[in-house]
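User: I'm curious whether this sequence folds into something compact or stays loose and floppy. Could you predict its structure so I can see for myself?
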Amino acid sequence: MSEVAEAVRDEAELAAADTASAGDSRQFVIFHVAEEMFAVPLAEVQEIIRMPEVVKVPLSPGALEGLANLRGTMLPVIRLRQIFGMSAVEHDDSTRVVILDQGRPVGLVVDRVANVVTVETDRIESVEGIQGTVDNDLMTGMIKASDGRSMVMILDAAKVVAREFKAVGKAIKQTLGGPGTHADSRKETKLAEDGSDESQLVSFEVAGQEYALPIEQVQEIVQIPEQITEVPNTPSHVLGVMTLRNRLLPLVSLRDMFGLPPQDVTDTNKIVVVSLGNDASAMSVGVMMDSVKEVLRVGRSVIDPMPALLARNGNLSEFQSICRLNEGKRLVSILASERMFNTGDIRAVVSGDGGGDGGEKAVMADESVDVRTSVIDDEEQFVVFRLMNEEYGVPIESVQEIVRVPDELTRVPKTPDFLEGVVNLRGVVLPVVDQRRRFGLPSMERNDRQRIMVYTIGGVRTGFIVDQVLEVMRIPASVIGLSPNLSEEQQRLIRRVANIEKTHRMILLLDTDQLLDTKELNAASKAVM
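Assistant: Here's the prediction. I'll summarize afterward.
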Protein backbone atom coordinates (compact mmCIF):
# COMPACT_ATOMS: atom_id res chain seq x y z
CA MET A 1 0.00 0.00 0.00
CA SER A 2 1.26 3.53 -0.78
CA GLU A 3 2.41 5.91 1.97
CA VAL A 4 -0.50 8.21 1.19
CA ALA A 5 -2.98 5.37 1.52
CA GLU A 6 -1.49 4.32 4.86
CA ALA A 7 -1.76 7.87 6.14
CA VAL A 8 -5.40 7.99 5.06
CA ARG A 9 -6.14 4.74 6.84
CA ASP A 10 -4.39 5.91 10.01
CA GLU A 11 -6.38 9.13 9.99
CA ALA A 12 -9.58 7.15 9.44
CA GLU A 13 -8.87 5.02 12.50
CA LEU A 14 -8.30 8.11 14.65
CA ALA A 15 -11.46 9.72 13.35
CA ALA A 16 -13.42 6.57 14.06
CA ALA A 17 -12.07 6.43 17.62
CA ASP A 18 -13.03 10.05 18.25
CA THR A 19 -16.60 9.52 17.11
CA ALA A 20 -17.21 5.97 18.31
CA SER A 21 -19.87 7.19 20.70
CA ALA A 22 -21.69 9.28 18.12
CA GLY A 23 -24.00 6.46 16.98
CA ASP A 24 -24.41 5.29 13.38
CA SER A 25 -21.73 6.78 11.16
CA ARG A 26 -19.96 6.34 7.83
CA GLN A 27 -16.42 7.08 6.75
CA PHE A 28 -15.53 9.08 3.63
CA VAL A 29 -12.41 10.23 1.80
CA ILE A 30 -12.74 13.95 1.08
CA PHE A 31 -10.98 15.53 -1.92
CA HIS A 32 -10.99 18.72 -4.00
CA VAL A 33 -11.66 19.14 -7.71
CA ALA A 34 -11.39 22.81 -8.72
CA GLU A 35 -13.45 24.78 -6.16
CA GLU A 36 -15.69 21.86 -5.22
CA MET A 37 -15.36 19.24 -2.47
CA PHE A 38 -16.37 15.64 -3.03
CA ALA A 39 -16.48 12.46 -1.01
CA VAL A 40 -16.39 8.75 -1.72
CA PRO A 41 -17.00 6.00 0.84
CA LEU A 42 -13.73 4.85 2.38
CA ALA A 43 -14.80 1.23 1.91
CA GLU A 44 -14.64 1.71 -1.88
CA VAL A 45 -11.11 3.19 -1.80
CA GLN A 46 -8.32 0.69 -2.43
CA GLU A 47 -5.50 3.21 -2.15
CA ILE A 48 -4.44 6.73 -3.03
CA ILE A 49 -1.31 7.30 -5.13
CA ARG A 50 0.57 10.11 -6.77
CA MET A 51 -0.04 10.73 -10.47
CA PRO A 52 1.59 7.77 -12.29
CA GLU A 53 2.96 7.62 -15.83
CA VAL A 54 0.15 6.76 -18.20
CA VAL A 55 -0.19 5.43 -21.73
CA LYS A 56 -2.65 7.38 -23.87
CA VAL A 57 -5.25 5.21 -25.60
CA PRO A 58 -6.63 6.45 -28.95
CA LEU A 59 -10.36 6.29 -29.75
CA SER A 60 -11.18 6.28 -26.02
CA PRO A 61 -13.46 8.73 -24.16
CA GLY A 62 -12.04 12.18 -23.63
CA ALA A 63 -12.07 11.83 -19.85
CA LEU A 64 -9.56 8.98 -19.94
CA GLU A 65 -6.14 10.20 -18.84
CA GLY A 66 -4.68 6.88 -19.94
CA LEU A 67 -3.67 3.45 -18.68
CA ALA A 68 -1.21 3.08 -15.81
CA ASN A 69 0.68 0.05 -14.54
CA LEU A 70 -0.49 -0.74 -11.01
CA ARG A 71 1.80 -3.56 -9.89
CA GLY A 72 1.17 -5.55 -13.05
CA THR A 73 -2.50 -4.58 -13.39
CA MET A 74 -3.74 -2.14 -16.05
CA LEU A 75 -5.38 0.82 -14.31
CA PRO A 76 -7.70 3.14 -16.27
CA VAL A 77 -7.14 6.69 -14.97
CA ILE A 78 -10.05 9.13 -15.37
CA ARG A 79 -9.96 12.94 -15.20
CA LEU A 80 -12.79 14.14 -12.94
CA ARG A 81 -12.37 17.70 -14.21
CA GLN A 82 -13.31 16.46 -17.67
CA ILE A 83 -16.29 14.50 -16.30
CA PHE A 84 -17.56 17.59 -14.52
CA GLY A 85 -16.93 19.98 -17.43
CA MET A 86 -14.29 21.95 -15.52
CA SER A 87 -11.24 23.59 -17.06
CA ALA A 88 -8.13 21.44 -17.38
CA VAL A 89 -5.02 22.18 -15.30
CA GLU A 90 -1.48 20.82 -15.20
CA HIS A 91 -0.83 18.11 -12.63
CA ASP A 92 1.33 19.17 -9.68
CA ASP A 93 2.67 17.75 -6.41
CA SER A 94 -0.81 17.86 -4.89
CA THR A 95 -2.45 15.82 -7.65
CA ARG A 96 -3.56 12.41 -6.51
CA VAL A 97 -5.28 9.38 -8.02
CA VAL A 98 -7.98 7.85 -5.84
CA ILE A 99 -8.20 4.16 -6.78
CA LEU A 100 -11.67 2.70 -6.36
CA ASP A 101 -12.91 -0.87 -6.55
CA GLN A 102 -15.44 -1.01 -9.39
CA GLY A 103 -15.18 -4.73 -10.00
CA ARG A 104 -11.71 -3.84 -11.25
CA PRO A 105 -9.47 -0.96 -10.13
CA VAL A 106 -10.36 2.47 -11.57
CA GLY A 107 -8.42 5.64 -10.76
CA LEU A 108 -9.96 9.11 -10.40
CA VAL A 109 -7.62 12.10 -10.80
CA VAL A 110 -8.30 14.73 -8.12
CA ASP A 111 -6.61 18.05 -7.42
CA ARG A 112 -5.96 17.36 -3.75
CA VAL A 113 -6.96 14.88 -1.06
CA ALA A 114 -8.16 16.68 2.07
CA ASN A 115 -8.76 14.10 4.77
CA VAL A 116 -10.82 11.17 5.95
CA VAL A 117 -13.90 11.96 8.04
CA THR A 118 -16.40 9.96 9.99
CA VAL A 119 -19.89 11.35 9.45
CA GLU A 120 -23.05 10.66 11.41
CA THR A 121 -25.82 9.47 9.13
CA ASP A 122 -28.09 12.33 10.19
CA ARG A 123 -25.66 14.78 8.53
CA ILE A 124 -26.08 13.10 5.12
CA GLU A 125 -28.87 14.66 3.09
CA SER A 126 -30.58 13.74 -0.16
CA VAL A 127 -29.49 15.50 -3.33
CA GLU A 128 -33.06 16.05 -4.50
CA GLY A 129 -33.84 19.71 -4.93
CA ILE A 130 -30.24 20.79 -4.42
CA GLN A 131 -28.78 22.87 -7.24
CA GLY A 132 -25.06 22.50 -7.82
CA THR A 133 -22.34 22.63 -10.45
CA VAL A 134 -22.36 18.84 -10.82
CA ASP A 135 -25.22 16.75 -12.18
CA ASN A 136 -27.21 15.34 -9.27
CA ASP A 137 -27.40 11.98 -11.03
CA LEU A 138 -23.69 11.53 -10.28
CA MET A 139 -24.23 11.94 -6.53
CA THR A 140 -25.75 9.75 -3.85
CA GLY A 141 -26.06 12.46 -1.20
CA MET A 142 -24.62 15.56 0.42
CA ILE A 143 -22.64 15.88 3.64
CA LYS A 144 -23.65 18.97 5.55
CA ALA A 145 -20.68 20.65 7.23
CA SER A 146 -20.86 21.25 10.97
CA ASP A 147 -21.05 25.01 10.37
CA GLY A 148 -24.07 24.46 8.14
CA ARG A 149 -22.64 26.68 5.42
CA SER A 150 -20.73 24.30 3.17
CA MET A 151 -21.68 21.02 1.56
CA VAL A 152 -19.62 18.05 0.36
CA MET A 153 -21.00 16.05 -2.56
CA ILE A 154 -20.90 12.26 -2.24
CA LEU A 155 -20.02 10.76 -5.60
CA ASP A 156 -21.69 7.71 -7.07
CA ALA A 157 -18.45 6.33 -8.49
CA ALA A 158 -20.19 3.60 -10.48
CA LYS A 159 -22.31 6.18 -12.32
CA VAL A 160 -19.31 8.44 -12.91
CA VAL A 161 -17.47 5.59 -14.61
CA ALA A 162 -20.48 4.18 -16.45
CA ARG A 163 -21.59 7.53 -17.90
CA GLU A 164 -18.28 8.19 -19.61
CA PHE A 165 -17.36 4.60 -20.33
CA LYS A 166 -20.56 2.97 -21.46
CA ALA A 167 -18.70 -0.13 -22.61
CA VAL A 168 -17.25 -0.82 -19.16
CA GLY A 169 -18.66 -3.96 -17.64
CA LYS A 170 -19.35 -5.81 -20.90
CA ALA A 171 -17.97 -9.31 -20.64
CA ILE A 172 -15.24 -10.21 -23.12
CA LYS A 173 -15.53 -13.90 -23.85
CA GLN A 174 -12.69 -14.18 -26.32
CA THR A 175 -9.70 -16.01 -24.85
CA LEU A 176 -6.12 -15.50 -25.91
CA GLY A 177 -4.93 -17.94 -28.54
CA GLY A 178 -8.32 -19.63 -28.83
CA PRO A 179 -9.97 -20.80 -32.04
CA GLY A 180 -10.84 -18.07 -34.49
CA THR A 181 -7.99 -15.81 -33.44
CA HIS A 182 -5.16 -14.48 -35.58
CA ALA A 183 -3.24 -17.74 -35.29
CA ASP A 184 -5.47 -19.41 -37.87
CA SER A 185 -5.54 -16.49 -40.27
CA ARG A 186 -1.75 -16.17 -40.04
CA LYS A 187 -1.33 -19.71 -41.32
CA GLU A 188 -3.56 -18.93 -44.28
CA THR A 189 -1.62 -15.75 -45.00
CA LYS A 190 1.65 -17.67 -44.85
CA LEU A 191 0.37 -20.27 -47.33
CA ALA A 192 -0.86 -17.57 -49.68
CA GLU A 193 2.44 -15.73 -49.62
CA ASP A 194 4.55 -18.83 -50.22
CA GLY A 195 2.98 -19.26 -53.63
CA SER A 196 3.59 -15.68 -54.74
CA ASP A 197 6.34 -14.42 -57.02
CA GLU A 198 7.68 -12.03 -54.40
CA SER A 199 10.28 -12.11 -51.66
CA GLN A 200 10.27 -10.29 -48.34
CA LEU A 201 13.54 -8.89 -47.08
CA VAL A 202 14.59 -7.15 -43.86
CA SER A 203 17.03 -4.44 -44.90
CA PHE A 204 19.63 -2.79 -42.68
CA GLU A 205 22.62 -0.50 -42.98
CA VAL A 206 26.26 -1.06 -42.09
CA ALA A 207 28.88 1.63 -42.78
CA GLY A 208 26.62 3.40 -45.26
CA GLN A 209 25.93 0.25 -47.29
CA GLU A 210 22.56 -1.49 -47.48
CA TYR A 211 22.23 -5.21 -46.86
CA ALA A 212 19.25 -7.51 -46.38
CA LEU A 213 18.26 -10.93 -45.11
CA PRO A 214 15.24 -12.98 -46.22
CA ILE A 215 12.53 -12.39 -43.64
CA GLU A 216 12.19 -16.12 -42.93
CA GLN A 217 15.79 -16.11 -41.64
CA VAL A 218 15.11 -13.24 -39.22
CA GLN A 219 13.62 -14.34 -35.92
CA GLU A 220 13.37 -10.94 -34.29
CA ILE A 221 15.05 -7.57 -33.87
CA VAL A 222 16.02 -6.44 -30.36
CA GLN A 223 17.79 -3.57 -28.64
CA ILE A 224 21.47 -3.69 -27.68
CA PRO A 225 21.61 -5.27 -24.19
CA GLU A 226 23.04 -3.40 -21.24
CA GLN A 227 25.52 -6.19 -20.61
CA ILE A 228 27.42 -8.40 -23.06
CA THR A 229 29.63 -11.15 -21.61
CA GLU A 230 32.91 -11.34 -23.51
CA VAL A 231 34.34 -14.73 -24.44
CA PRO A 232 38.18 -15.11 -24.55
CA ASN A 233 40.11 -16.55 -27.49
CA THR A 234 37.45 -15.64 -30.05
CA PRO A 235 37.75 -13.80 -33.39
CA SER A 236 37.51 -10.02 -33.28
CA HIS A 237 34.04 -9.96 -34.82
CA VAL A 238 32.62 -12.00 -31.88
CA LEU A 239 31.27 -9.52 -29.31
CA GLY A 240 30.36 -12.18 -26.74
CA VAL A 241 27.06 -13.62 -25.51
CA MET A 242 23.85 -12.15 -24.10
CA THR A 243 20.80 -13.68 -22.41
CA LEU A 244 17.60 -13.64 -24.43
CA ARG A 245 14.61 -15.18 -22.67
CA ASN A 246 16.57 -17.67 -20.59
CA ARG A 247 18.84 -18.82 -23.40
CA LEU A 248 22.31 -17.74 -24.43
CA LEU A 249 22.66 -15.85 -27.70
CA PRO A 250 26.10 -15.36 -29.31
CA LEU A 251 26.65 -11.84 -30.68
CA VAL A 252 28.76 -10.80 -33.65
CA SER A 253 29.50 -7.49 -35.32
CA LEU A 254 28.84 -7.30 -39.04
CA ARG A 255 31.22 -4.35 -39.28
CA ASP A 256 34.08 -6.48 -37.96
CA MET A 257 33.09 -9.46 -40.11
CA PHE A 258 33.33 -7.30 -43.23
CA GLY A 259 36.55 -5.57 -42.12
CA LEU A 260 34.87 -2.14 -41.86
CA PRO A 261 36.02 0.66 -39.51
CA PRO A 262 34.68 0.39 -35.94
CA GLN A 263 32.00 2.78 -34.73
CA ASP A 264 30.64 3.75 -31.30
CA VAL A 265 27.42 1.95 -30.36
CA THR A 266 24.35 4.22 -30.23
CA ASP A 267 20.60 3.84 -29.79
CA THR A 268 20.21 3.28 -33.53
CA ASN A 269 22.23 0.06 -33.41
CA LYS A 270 20.07 -3.05 -33.39
CA ILE A 271 20.60 -6.77 -32.87
CA VAL A 272 19.09 -8.85 -35.70
CA VAL A 273 18.54 -12.41 -34.45
CA VAL A 274 19.05 -14.79 -37.37
CA SER A 275 18.55 -18.52 -37.72
CA LEU A 276 21.32 -20.78 -39.04
CA GLY A 277 19.15 -23.32 -40.82
CA ASN A 278 15.49 -24.18 -41.21
CA ASP A 279 15.00 -27.24 -39.02
CA ALA A 280 14.27 -27.63 -35.32
CA SER A 281 17.95 -27.96 -34.48
CA ALA A 282 18.87 -24.62 -36.08
CA MET A 283 20.97 -22.28 -33.93
CA SER A 284 20.46 -18.56 -33.41
CA VAL A 285 22.99 -15.75 -33.68
CA GLY A 286 22.60 -12.07 -32.91
CA VAL A 287 24.17 -9.77 -35.52
CA MET A 288 24.75 -6.13 -34.59
CA MET A 289 23.81 -3.70 -37.36
CA ASP A 290 24.25 0.07 -37.54
CA SER A 291 20.50 0.45 -38.08
CA VAL A 292 17.51 -1.47 -39.39
CA LYS A 293 15.86 0.27 -42.33
CA GLU A 294 12.66 -1.42 -43.52
CA VAL A 295 10.87 -4.55 -44.63
CA LEU A 296 10.91 -4.86 -48.42
CA ARG A 297 8.53 -6.84 -50.59
CA VAL A 298 10.21 -7.21 -53.95
CA GLY A 299 9.52 -9.16 -57.12
CA ARG A 300 11.88 -12.03 -57.84
CA SER A 301 12.58 -10.47 -61.24
CA VAL A 302 14.69 -7.74 -59.59
CA ILE A 303 16.80 -10.24 -57.61
CA ASP A 304 19.90 -11.47 -59.46
CA PRO A 305 22.44 -14.08 -58.35
CA MET A 306 25.85 -12.89 -57.30
CA PRO A 307 27.95 -12.35 -60.46
CA ALA A 308 30.03 -15.46 -61.07
CA LEU A 309 33.28 -13.50 -61.25
CA LEU A 310 32.72 -12.20 -57.72
CA ALA A 311 31.18 -15.35 -56.31
CA ARG A 312 34.34 -17.34 -57.07
CA ASN A 313 36.03 -15.36 -54.31
CA GLY A 314 35.47 -17.28 -51.09
CA ASN A 315 35.26 -14.04 -49.11
CA LEU A 316 31.92 -13.32 -50.79
CA SER A 317 30.29 -16.66 -50.09
CA GLU A 318 27.96 -15.11 -47.51
CA PHE A 319 26.28 -13.05 -50.27
CA GLN A 320 23.62 -15.00 -52.11
CA SER A 321 22.19 -12.35 -54.47
CA ILE A 322 21.76 -8.69 -55.37
CA CYS A 323 18.43 -6.83 -55.33
CA ARG A 324 17.99 -3.99 -57.85
CA LEU A 325 15.62 -1.22 -56.75
CA ASN A 326 14.70 2.15 -58.24
CA GLU A 327 15.70 0.99 -61.73
CA GLY A 328 19.08 -0.18 -60.49
CA LYS A 329 19.95 3.04 -58.65
CA ARG A 330 19.58 1.29 -55.28
CA LEU A 331 21.42 -2.01 -54.85
CA VAL A 332 20.84 -4.18 -51.80
CA SER A 333 23.19 -7.08 -51.07
CA ILE A 334 21.23 -10.10 -49.83
CA LEU A 335 23.04 -12.23 -47.27
CA ALA A 336 22.62 -15.93 -46.53
CA SER A 337 22.75 -16.46 -42.76
CA GLU A 338 23.71 -20.15 -42.98
CA ARG A 339 26.84 -19.21 -45.01
CA MET A 340 27.97 -16.44 -42.65
CA PHE A 341 28.94 -18.57 -39.67
CA ASN A 342 30.55 -21.86 -38.77
CA THR A 343 28.10 -23.62 -36.44
CA GLY A 344 30.95 -25.37 -34.61
CA ASP A 345 32.56 -22.02 -33.77
CA ILE A 346 29.21 -20.62 -32.63
CA ARG A 347 28.60 -23.55 -30.30
CA ALA A 348 32.12 -23.05 -28.88
CA VAL A 349 31.35 -19.39 -28.19
CA VAL A 350 28.18 -20.28 -26.29
CA SER A 351 29.89 -23.01 -24.29
CA GLY A 352 32.60 -20.55 -23.32
CA ASP A 353 35.44 -22.46 -25.04
CA GLY A 354 35.96 -19.62 -27.48
CA GLY A 355 37.46 -22.02 -29.98
CA GLY A 356 40.82 -21.88 -28.22
CA ASP A 357 42.82 -24.51 -26.35
CA GLY A 358 42.33 -24.54 -22.60
CA GLY A 359 40.48 -21.24 -22.64
CA GLU A 360 38.68 -20.54 -19.39
CA LYS A 361 34.90 -20.46 -19.70
CA ALA A 362 33.59 -16.91 -19.61
CA VAL A 363 29.93 -17.84 -19.33
CA MET A 364 28.84 -19.31 -16.01
CA ALA A 365 25.50 -20.81 -17.01
CA ASP A 366 23.44 -23.92 -16.52
CA GLU A 367 24.93 -26.56 -18.81
CA SER A 368 21.42 -27.77 -19.60
CA VAL A 369 20.54 -24.51 -21.40
CA ASP A 370 19.67 -25.34 -25.00
CA VAL A 371 20.93 -22.62 -27.33
CA ARG A 372 19.04 -23.93 -30.32
CA THR A 373 15.94 -22.13 -31.50
CA SER A 374 12.68 -23.76 -30.66
CA VAL A 375 9.03 -23.00 -31.15
CA ILE A 376 7.84 -21.23 -28.05
CA ASP A 377 4.10 -21.71 -27.80
CA ASP A 378 3.53 -19.01 -25.19
CA GLU A 379 5.04 -16.13 -27.16
CA GLU A 380 3.81 -13.92 -29.97
CA GLN A 381 5.88 -11.83 -32.35
CA PHE A 382 4.98 -8.20 -33.01
CA VAL A 383 6.30 -5.26 -35.02
CA VAL A 384 6.39 -2.37 -32.54
CA PHE A 385 6.00 1.20 -33.73
CA ARG A 386 5.53 4.62 -32.19
CA LEU A 387 2.78 7.23 -32.50
CA MET A 388 3.40 10.40 -30.48
CA ASN A 389 4.72 9.08 -27.15
CA GLU A 390 2.99 5.70 -27.17
CA GLU A 391 4.04 2.28 -28.44
CA TYR A 392 1.82 0.04 -30.54
CA GLY A 393 2.28 -3.50 -31.77
CA VAL A 394 0.87 -5.46 -34.70
CA PRO A 395 1.36 -9.19 -35.35
CA ILE A 396 4.36 -9.62 -37.61
CA GLU A 397 2.35 -11.93 -39.88
CA SER A 398 -0.05 -9.09 -40.69
CA VAL A 399 2.72 -6.75 -41.93
CA GLN A 400 3.12 -7.05 -45.69
CA GLU A 401 6.08 -4.69 -45.79
CA ILE A 402 7.48 -1.47 -44.34
CA VAL A 403 8.61 1.30 -46.69
CA ARG A 404 9.76 4.88 -46.48
CA VAL A 405 7.26 7.70 -46.92
CA PRO A 406 7.76 9.25 -50.37
CA ASP A 407 8.44 12.96 -50.73
CA GLU A 408 4.98 13.44 -52.23
CA LEU A 409 1.73 11.50 -52.04
CA THR A 410 -0.79 11.88 -54.85
CA ARG A 411 -3.99 13.40 -53.51
CA VAL A 412 -7.23 11.88 -54.76
CA PRO A 413 -10.20 14.28 -55.00
CA LYS A 414 -13.50 13.46 -53.30
CA THR A 415 -11.96 10.93 -50.91
CA PRO A 416 -12.47 10.82 -47.12
CA ASP A 417 -10.25 12.91 -44.87
CA PHE A 418 -8.59 9.85 -43.38
CA LEU A 419 -6.96 9.07 -46.76
CA GLU A 420 -3.68 10.93 -47.05
CA GLY A 421 -3.32 9.98 -50.72
CA VAL A 422 -1.99 7.19 -52.90
CA VAL A 423 1.50 6.05 -53.84
CA ASN A 424 2.84 3.89 -56.66
CA LEU A 425 4.48 0.89 -55.02
CA ARG A 426 6.23 -1.14 -57.72
CA GLY A 427 3.47 -0.57 -60.23
CA VAL A 428 0.61 -1.02 -57.74
CA VAL A 429 -1.40 1.96 -56.52
CA LEU A 430 -1.48 1.87 -52.72
CA PRO A 431 -3.94 3.95 -50.66
CA VAL A 432 -2.18 5.55 -47.68
CA VAL A 433 -3.77 6.48 -44.35
CA ASP A 434 -2.20 8.78 -41.79
CA GLN A 435 -2.38 6.67 -38.62
CA ARG A 436 -2.31 9.80 -36.44
CA ARG A 437 -5.36 11.19 -38.19
CA ARG A 438 -7.10 7.82 -38.01
CA PHE A 439 -6.65 7.89 -34.22
CA GLY A 440 -7.61 11.55 -33.85
CA LEU A 441 -4.09 12.58 -32.81
CA PRO A 442 -2.33 15.88 -33.71
CA SER A 443 -0.66 15.84 -37.11
CA MET A 444 3.08 16.22 -37.60
CA GLU A 445 5.38 17.29 -40.41
CA ARG A 446 6.97 14.60 -42.54
CA ASN A 447 10.41 13.41 -41.40
CA ASP A 448 12.96 10.68 -42.17
CA ARG A 449 11.86 8.46 -39.30
CA GLN A 450 8.31 7.99 -40.51
CA ARG A 451 7.42 4.77 -42.31
CA ILE A 452 4.48 3.28 -44.18
CA MET A 453 3.36 -0.07 -42.75
CA VAL A 454 1.46 -2.07 -45.36
CA TYR A 455 -1.35 -4.46 -44.43
CA THR A 456 -4.04 -6.29 -46.39
CA ILE A 457 -7.40 -5.47 -44.82
CA GLY A 458 -10.51 -7.08 -46.24
CA GLY A 459 -8.63 -7.83 -49.45
CA VAL A 460 -7.52 -4.19 -49.85
CA ARG A 461 -3.79 -3.56 -49.58
CA THR A 462 -3.42 -0.36 -47.55
CA GLY A 463 -0.53 1.61 -46.07
CA PHE A 464 -0.53 3.42 -42.72
CA ILE A 465 1.95 6.17 -41.87
CA VAL A 466 3.51 5.79 -38.39
CA ASP A 467 5.99 8.02 -36.58
CA GLN A 468 8.72 5.39 -36.25
CA VAL A 469 9.14 1.63 -36.47
CA LEU A 470 11.00 0.58 -33.33
CA GLU A 471 11.66 -3.15 -33.37
CA VAL A 472 10.41 -6.67 -33.88
CA MET A 473 9.91 -8.34 -30.54
CA ARG A 474 8.65 -11.59 -29.06
CA ILE A 475 6.22 -10.95 -26.23
CA PRO A 476 5.36 -13.68 -23.71
CA ALA A 477 1.67 -14.50 -23.47
CA SER A 478 1.95 -14.10 -19.70
CA VAL A 479 2.26 -10.30 -20.03
CA ILE A 480 -0.50 -9.93 -22.62
CA GLY A 481 -3.95 -9.17 -21.25
CA LEU A 482 -7.29 -7.96 -22.49
CA SER A 483 -7.50 -4.18 -22.70
CA PRO A 484 -10.03 -2.35 -20.54
CA ASN A 485 -13.30 -1.92 -22.42
CA LEU A 486 -13.25 1.87 -22.69
CA SER A 487 -15.27 2.44 -25.86
CA GLU A 488 -16.78 0.31 -28.60
CA GLU A 489 -14.36 1.53 -31.27
CA GLN A 490 -11.33 1.22 -29.00
CA GLN A 491 -12.31 -2.28 -27.90
CA ARG A 492 -12.73 -3.41 -31.50
CA LEU A 493 -9.33 -2.09 -32.54
CA ILE A 494 -7.21 -2.40 -29.37
CA ARG A 495 -8.33 -5.64 -27.79
CA ARG A 496 -5.13 -6.48 -25.94
CA VAL A 497 -2.27 -4.75 -24.13
CA ALA A 498 1.22 -6.03 -23.40
CA ASN A 499 2.07 -4.87 -19.88
CA ILE A 500 5.84 -5.47 -19.60
CA GLU A 501 6.43 -4.46 -16.01
CA LYS A 502 10.13 -5.39 -15.96
CA THR A 503 11.00 -2.76 -18.58
CA HIS A 504 8.17 -0.37 -17.66
CA ARG A 505 6.61 -0.63 -21.11
CA MET A 506 2.96 -0.86 -22.02
CA ILE A 507 2.34 -1.71 -25.69
CA LEU A 508 -1.13 -1.35 -27.21
CA LEU A 509 -1.73 -4.32 -29.52
CA LEU A 510 -3.78 -3.52 -32.62
CA ASP A 511 -6.11 -5.79 -34.56
CA THR A 512 -5.09 -4.77 -38.09
CA ASP A 513 -8.28 -6.24 -39.57
CA GLN A 514 -10.21 -3.55 -37.69
CA LEU A 515 -8.11 -0.54 -38.76
CA LEU A 516 -10.73 0.32 -41.38
CA ASP A 517 -14.45 -0.44 -41.29
CA THR A 518 -16.46 -1.61 -44.30
CA LYS A 519 -17.34 1.91 -45.45
CA GLU A 520 -13.72 3.05 -45.17
CA LEU A 521 -12.49 -0.02 -47.03
CA ASN A 522 -14.85 0.77 -49.90
CA ALA A 523 -13.52 4.33 -50.00
CA ALA A 524 -9.92 3.06 -50.04
CA SER A 525 -10.77 0.66 -52.89
CA LYS A 526 -12.31 3.42 -54.98
CA ALA A 527 -9.25 5.64 -54.44
CA VAL A 528 -7.03 3.20 -56.36
CA MET A 529 -9.42 2.56 -59.25
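Summary: The two ends are 60 Å apart (CA to CA). The CA atoms of residues 233 and 357 lie 8 Å apart.
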